[in-house]
Amino acid sequence: MSxxxxxxxxxxxxxxxxxxxxxxxxxRLIFRDYQFNEIRTPIFEHYExxxxxxxxxxxxxxxxxxxxxxxxxxxxxxxxxGTAPIVRSYIExxxxxxxxxxxxxxxxxxxxxxxxxxxxxxxxxxxxxxVEAFGSANPATxxxxxxxxxxxxxxxxxxxxxxxxxxxxxxxxxxxxRQALIxxxxxxxxxxxxxxxxxxxxxxxxxxxxxxxxxxxxxxxxPSILDYLSETAKAHFEEVKAMLTALEIPFEVDKNMVRGLxxxxxxxxxxxxxxxxxxxxxxxxxxGRYDRLVEELGGPETPGFGFALGIERVLLTLxxxxxxxxxxxxxxxxxVGLGEGTNVETLKVVQAIRNxxxxxxxxxxxxxxxxxFKSADKANAKLVLTLGxxxxxxxMINVKVMATREEKSVLLDEIYQQFDEIFDELLTEK
Length: 430
Ligand code: ATP
Ligand code: MG
Known about the structure:
Elements: H1 16-33, E1 37-38, E2 44-46, H2 47-54, H3 59-63, E3 67-69, E4 75-78, H4 83-92, E5 104-113, E6 125-134, H5 139-156, E7 161-167, H6 171-185, H7 194-202, H8 205-208, H9 213-219, H10 231-246, E8 252-253, E9 265-273, E10 283-289, H11 293-296, E11 304-310, H12 311-320, E12 331-337, H13 343-355, E13 360-362, H14 369-378, E14 381-387, H15 389-394, E15 396-401, E16 407-411, H16 412-427
Parallel strand pairs: 1-5, 7-8, 12-13, 12-14
Antiparallel strand pairs: 2-4, 3-4, 5-6, 6-11, 7-9, 9-10, 10-11, 14-15, 15-16
Bound molecules: adenosine-5'-triphosphate and magnesium ion.
């Protein structure tokens, strides 16, 4: 019997996980600069929380949910995205209260689950980093949040990306546009996929987001929502564009972009990678405004803006652009112990070094000197300490600086009492 991880999931092994940590750290640093703080929500939620916010007719809710009934007959689901859980948490903990900052800015990172057909950049357990800002209807919030996403990619060294925006307007806009879209689509009903036929009357905007090739042909000539924007919605979108221009941030408008979630209003955006080989998975970051979602989930009327980016796709982009991620691959000291008689003392030395706050490793297999030195080299040790049985008898240990090949004999007691000073002395000056 041999086991494999579930389809559409990955194990992140050392080497790979170092890159993930770098991406996560970069995000945390940038989010700090913009004053976003982390919320960690559970991996599973009540089914209703997701269905209500993301929308029953979306692919996510209608096809991709990892939902089940637990032993207490509660309908729960692994979270497919981060915004709905954060909004649930924002309302539950009354983070809209007067004691909290406004806008309330928060971020999250972690695994999400969607039952999809696995492909490159499309997994069943994937990972998102996302942010949400609650309580500001100011278009400046839209713009600085998009700018923050772009900063993140720039900081990572990713260059071949584009910001694409659109507006889905307000309720008035949606009502007018909905009818226009139905009027346009009805004569084409027979050409549409089964899913789109069903959605035509339920939720016609979803037809625009279809991944079906034939649907996409029909949709190409559909009326644009931008021609149906209410005065308020138009003003908001104009301000967003003006502010992007003021910050000298290049952008494109895609008048047919709708996004795969129902909760968006006004500004929506995607950051698309033009790096080679991204295929249909070229959207690395996506988000927008959701001014009705908090109310929809039972909270007070609160505007919101947020985005989510897929870590797996960020990694594919980094690879495609051949960006080298700095990975820490050296240790401060390697302790070579020669002869079984040195086993205990080698343990004491390596522990003493670690207790001084340095990274250290040793041999555990009683290997020959040559093999141990090879390990020290491989680990890029700055110092190699060698303890033979004769030295041990004299209470001494040999210390070698790998960069200069300089060697000296040191009292074991000195290592135990002042390794930090020895390390500084040997490695700083000269
Ligand atoms: P797509 O159109 O590619 O299916 P989506 O509209 O479903 O994307 P969102 O729900 O907006 O995506 O999620 C935001 C980001 O999360 C995406 O831009 C992508 O980077 C990432 N993402 C979404 N689904 C997956 C997945 N199954 N595997 C890996 N990354 C994903
Ligand atoms: Mg999707």
